[in-house]
Input
Amino acid sequence: MNKKFIVLVFVLILIVGVISVSLWNYQPSTDNVDSDVLENTSQSTSNNSTNTRNGLNDQFTNHNGVTDKNNVQFSLNGPKSVSQGTNIGLKIKITNNGDSPITNVESTWRGGNHDFGTINPGESKEFTTNSYVISNNNIMADFGSDSVLSNEPLFLGGFGLKYLINGVEYNSRSNSLEIPYT
Output
């Protein structure tokens, strides 16, 4: 086989492995893990909300996210498309549609943690953060000029969520995102 092809395949496998490990670094305890999470990732193309935090102006996706057995809804949204070598905004939203306050609400993702505190019934809280999208130049600098990113969409594996209701801990994971490159 061609040496360049073998190196390219190795680099792609390495990149996918590194990204997978970093996106899934949060492993919630198995106590009270919500196995009844219902996926609800319908999108609306009429959403024109923008993120102007830190000068970003990204058109956000409109995923409803997931709703767990306690009627807590949590979603991850990002831009509708990305460019290599840029920062993008990611929006985490948690809505308590249940009957009890949720306390010690914390999201965990590859970029870190965010403490939402307490979310009362009927209340929503959002957090927006930035994430860097790796470029072919980054890959070539680290792995050589024969290495490039694939044209597959950028995949973000979602965020972990934990919270308490009356002292009992619940854990789950948000929706993931696939964002095409422009």
Q: What stands out?
A: The chain has one domain: 28-134+152-179. The chain has two helices and 13 strands.
